[in-house]
Amino acid sequence: DTEIMERIAAMRKLVEADHKQLEHMEGALRKLADDAVAVETVQPGDSIYGDEPETVLYSSMESNQGALDHMWLILCGALVMIMQAGFAMMASGLCRVKSVQSCLVINLADLAMTTIGWFCVGYAFAYGGPFDPNTTFKKHTILGTEGFAGEGFVTRRDDGQYEPNMQIGRWFFEWASCCVAGTIVAGGVLERISWPGILIFSLFFSAVIYPLIAAATWGRGFLATIHDTGYFDFGGSGVIHFTGGLAALMGAIIAGPRKKRFQDSYWERMTEYPERFDPHSLPLVVLGTFILW
């Protein structure tokens, strides 16, 4: 009858709609399968270093991965560099008013000399190879001998093009860590060191002293070989702060106290009014503390 025919027509429409939906899903699955096959046919070596006309220079995945890796290292290095502002505020607040300008300029000079030393030889000593291919530790265990003055930051292909790598990003991040250690030393000898002294020390610290510690630890040197997992110090307390703090302590011992900071005898300290050495700006000290925190 008429009711049965209407139900049959409605069922036929539902079946046709389901059939169209299945065809759409099958098309989407075929497209995904074709994309997967296309990705598998592009080998990592061919996509980056392929010199043939039909090869792809960079796949989208490799391009995004390289950009994100560099972005992450730049962001982390910039956050570490913000500590320079914290050290500058704290040191300038702790010193006397007449030494504020000298304090800030010394921080800038320390940063400049540290950059020169780290770029020329420091990074190569600390993180350069050669490495043992079986253990990934340094072959020489003490210092690296590769990567001086930016060597290996980019890779030159046979066709004359240059391929980027992660060395320059890592150099930037580790440079920021080296600068923090050097600034700790500059703050430890504040108002007690001359211009030539801080320039020479900053260059030597970033080229020799800090790289020795970094090579033995983060650079996979002899201290990292104690355990198969290497050396772990995510906060840098044993590399950055211990090295910088110990160097600052030795500098303070060698330089001695500031002139007129202590009188020669107990009687003079009790009877004579000494020069004021109190911090001239506690707000700067607190601001620097928050930035470092």
3D structure, described in words:
- The chain is mainly alpha-helical and 293 residues long.
- The protein has nine helices and two strands.
- It has helices spanning 2-41, 44-49, 60-94, 100-127, 167-188, 195-216, 237-255, 266-271, 282-292, and strands spanning 154-156, 162-164.
- Strands 1-2 form a two-stranded antiparallel ribbon.
- The protein is elongated and about 125 Å long.
- The protein starts with a helix and ends with a helix.
- Residues 42-50 have low confidence and may be disordered.
CATH architectural grouping of the largest domain: Orthogonal Bundle
Distance between the termini: 84 Å
**Unreliable segments (pLDDT under 50, ≥5 consecutive)?**
42-50
Strand order of the largest sheet: 1-2
**Count of discrete domains:** 2
Radius of gyration (CA) equals: 31 Å
Q: Can you write the helix and strand succession as a string? A: HHHHEEHHHHH
Mean pLDDT: 81
What's the tally of helices?
A: 9
- Quaternary status: single chain
Q: According to CATH, what is the topology of the largest domain?
A: Ammonium transporter fold
The CATH class of the largest domain: Mainly Alpha
Shape descriptor = elongated
Proportion of residues in β-strands: under 5%
In terms of structural class, how would the helical and strand content be classed?
A: mainly alpha
Number of strands: 2
Fraction of residues in helices? Answer: 55-70%
Subcellular location: Membrane
Family: Belongs to the ammonia transporter channel (TC 1.A.11.2) family.
GO molecular function: ammonium channel activity
InterPro entries: Ammonium/urea_transptr, NH4_transpt_AmtB-like_dom
